[in-house]
Structures are given as structure tokens and as C-alpha cells.
From TrEMBL:
Sequence similarity: Belongs to the OLFML3 family.
UniProt protein name: OLFL3 protein
UniProt keyword list: Coiled coil, Developmental protein, Disulfide bond, Glycoprotein, Secreted, Signal
GO BP terms, alphabetized: signal transduction
Pfam family of the protein (one): OLF
Cross-referenced PANTHER family: OLFACTOMEDIN-LIKE PROTEIN 3 (PTHR23192:SF8), OLFACTOMEDIN-RELATED (PTHR23192)
Protein species of origin: Gymnorhina tibicen
Compartment(s) where it occurs, according to its Swiss-Prot or TrEMBL record: Secreted
This protein's record includes keyword Transferase: no
Coiled-coil positions: 57-98
GO cellular component, one term: extracellular space
Record has S-adenosyl-L-methionine as a keyword: no
Signal peptide (from-to): 1-19
Length: 393
């Protein structure tokens, strides 16, 4: 096709090209318009979401500020309550000092000499059993270390006669404040003494030979060269009775516990006192106590030596003395004295304690549970005992 023919076709194709171009521009314009609408819609939604997010953030910040204010208010209330409790404790202590418990009866020398003479007359007399208890310890069935609490020497126990589950803790060998936990669980879980109730005694104790028995605390007070047994009512926090122990020139009853002069023990037959005097300084003595009047019912000299002894307890009228062995992890009962004569020393079981850390500062036998609450170098331990009849051992 020649050039002149192309020139002739141009006027004919121009309208078609312009129409296609117009359609393409309209299509592009429509697409741009749709894209602008979508961008505008996205912008509106984004603005709305930003506004909602800002409002939510402000709401959360307000809630956090309110929670922080409430937390501060609760903290202030807790601190105020703690201050009030401390003030109340000080007021109670002040009232106790202003209205002290009935004082211990001061025994004059004539009366004390009479008591000593009576006690000597009752010494080594034939013992009349109060019960038909015929059990003795065969072995230590189990040992459980609960926790470490307080100083290296102390005492922890339950009521040996009552049904209370309270735990009484005597920290140290010379103090006047007893810690009371409502149950074993609280004593085990909480290490802080602020979780425990406190009983402030009218007189400080000495040693670790104290006992909780039938709602009363029997503890030892030193007054000069003599020692008193104080009977303290745990319910109304008053001294019910007191008695000078009728023994002359007392010395520490256990060679490894020099602060303990009298060990008050409980068994199935009642209360006992384990002590020692210069008259027979090598061996221990045993006395039967009347829990109501604190009178000495009877006294015995025992063949159990004080040397290397770390503690003792009574089971069914038989004194069991625990000694340290050469092995640092063992302690054992090496001397048994049965006041009724039913159990001969050679027939008694050789009981080993699977201890531990150091030396027992206290061993409290609980006749209701048939187990021993021990304090060993600051650790509180329970020994569960396996029992047998005396005639079967």
C-alpha cells in the first residue's frame, strides 16, 4: 500500500482511536475514583479505631490509677491495723503489769524444812500404781523433721492430757514469752513469730523442763538457790499455784543440758519431776507430782547417771534416760528405771534415736499420741514410738 493510501485512511481511523482513548480514560478515572473512595473509607475507619483505642487506653489508665489508689488505701489500713495491734499488745502488757497474776507463795524456811523432811520420808517407798498401764517403748518407729525455729535450745509440745491441737513453743532456756500456734499446720508453714499468739508469763522460766498438761502450764522458775514449780492457767493467764521444790542443793539434772534443773514429765499415770542433788550428784532422782496441789507424792533415787545424759521422759511409770553416744548421729536410751519394779533394766529394749544435728535440749513424751516432741539444735522433730507390753520385752 502506498503512502498516499495511508493518508487517505487516517481520517477514517482517527474517530475510532479517539473513542478508544476516551473509554480508556473513563476506565482509569473510574478506578481512581473507586480507589479514592476506599482510601477515604479506610481513613475514616482508621480514625475511628484510633479514637476508640485512645478512649480505651484512657479508661484503662483510669482503672489502673483507681486500683493503685485502692491498693495504697488498703496498705495504709493494714499499717494502721498493725499499729493498733501493737498498741493493743502494749496496753495489754501494761494492764498485766498493773494487775499482775497472783504472786508465788514465798515459803519460809521452817515450812520448807518441813516439806523437805516429809519428802525424804516418802523417798523410795513402795509405789502404788494409779493405772494398769503396762506398756514400754520397743523402738522408734518413725522420725519426722518439721522445721527449724528459734535458738539451739528450746522446747515445743502439745497439751499432754487435753484434746487441744495447739502447739506451744518455748524458745531458749531463759525467757518469759510463750508462742502459741493454733495447729501443727500453722506451726509448720509459718516461720515468723508474728503468726503466733503470745503468752507473757509473770516470771521467766529457766531450762527446758516445762510441760503443758490439762490446760495448765507447769514451768520452772529459779529464785535464788531454790526452784519453784509454777502452775499457770493458760485460759485466764493467771498463776493458779506455786511450790518450792523440796530438794536441797539441786544441780543440773542432765550433764549435757546445764540449764535444766527440773524436768517435768507426763505419762499415762500423771506428772513426774526428774531432778538431781549434790547428795547423790552422780545419779538422777525421780518424784511423783500431784498436778492439783503440786505436792510431792513420792520420791525415788535412781541408778541412772547424769553424765552424758541429754534428756529423759517417763512412760507408764518407767523413767527412760537418753544419752549421747560416740557417734554424732545417734542417741539412745541406756537407763530405764521402773518405779513399780515390773520392768527390769536388763529386760528393757535398747532404743536408738535416728538423729540428726547436735544434742537434744528437750524430749517431751505425749501419752495421748505415743510420740515424742524433740528439740535438736533448733530443729523440731517428732519421734513416733513403737510400744510393747513390759512382760513381752
Amino acid at each position: 500500500m502506498g503512502p498516499w493510501r495511508c493518508l487517505l485512511l487516517l481520517p477514517l481511523l482517527a474517530p475510532a482511536l479517539r473513542a478508544q482513548q476516551q473509554q480508556f480514560m473513563e476506565y482509569v478515572e473510574r478506578r481512581l475514583t473507586l480507589l479514592e473512595e476506599r482510601i477515604s473509607q479506610w481513613h475514616d475507619q482508621s480514625s475511628r479505631y484510633s479514637t476508640e483505642l485512645r478512649d480505651f487506653k484512657n479508661q484503662v489508665l483510669g482503672m489502673l490509677e483507681a486500683a493503685e489508689k485502692e491498693r495504697e488505701a488498703m496498705r495504709a489500713e493494714a499499717e494502721s491495723a498493725a499499729v493498733r495491734v501493737d498498741r493493743l499488745e502494749r496496753e495489754v502488757d501494761y494492764l498485766e503489769t498493773q494487775n499482775p497474776a497472783p504472786p508465788c507463795v514465798e515459803v519460809d524456811e521452817t515450812l520448807m524444812d518441813k516439806q523437805v523432811a516429809t519428802a525424804k520420808q516418802r523417798k523410795n517407798e513402795k509405789y502404788t500404781k494409779l493405772t494398769d498401764c503396762s506398756d514400754t517403748i520397743a523402738s522408734v518407729r518413725a522420725m519426722k523433721i518439721l522445721k527449724r525455729f528459734g535458738s539451739t535450745s528450746g522446747l515445743w509440745t502439745k497439751d499432754a492430757a487435753g484434746s487441744s491441737e495447739k502447739i506451744y513453743v518455748f524458745d531458749g532456756t531463759a525467757n518469759d514469752t510463750v508462742y502459741v500456734f493454733p495447729r501443727m499446720r500453722e506451726f509448720t508453714l509459718f516461720s515468723a513469730t508474728r503468726k503466733a499468739a503470745r503468752i507473757k508469763l509473770p516470771y521467766p522460766w529457766v531450762g527446758t523442763g516445762h510441760l503443758v498438761y490439762n490446760g495448765h502450764l507447769y514451768y520452772i522458775r529459779q529464785q535464788g538457790l531454790s526452784f519453784q514449780v509454777i502452775k499457770f492457767n493458760l485460759a485466764n493467764k493467771t498463776v493458779v499455784d506455786s511450790s518450792v521444790f523440796p530438794a536441797e542443793e539441786q544441780i543440773p539434772v542432765f550433764g549435757l543440758s546445764p540449764s535444766t534443773y527440773i524436768e517435768v514429765s507426763a505419762d499415762e499415770e500423771g506428772l513426774w519431776a526428774i531432778y538431781a542433788t549434790k547428795e547423790d550428784e552422780k545419779n538422777m532422782c525421780l518424784a511423783k507430782l500431784d498436778p492439783a496441789s503440786l505436792d510431792i507424792e513420792q520420791m525415788w533415787d535412781t541408778p541412772c547417771p547424769r553424765e552424758n545424759a541429754e534428756g529423759a521422759f517417763v512412760v507408764c511409770g518407767a523413767l527412760h534416760v537418753v544419752y549421747n553416744t560416740r557417734l554424732p548421729s545417734r542417741a539412745r536410751v541406756q537407763c530405764v528405771f521402773d518405779v513399780s519394779g515390773t520392768l527390769a533394766p536388763e529386760d528393757a529394749s535398747l532404743v536408738y534415736f535416728p538423729k540428726r544435728y547436735g544434742s537434744h535440749s528437750s524430749l517431751k513424751y505425749n501419752p495421748r499420741e505415743r510420740q515424742i516432741y524433740a528439740w535438736d539444735d533448733g530443729y523440731q522433730i517428732i519421734y513416733r514410738m513403737e510400744m510393747k507390753k513390759k512382760l513381752e520385752v
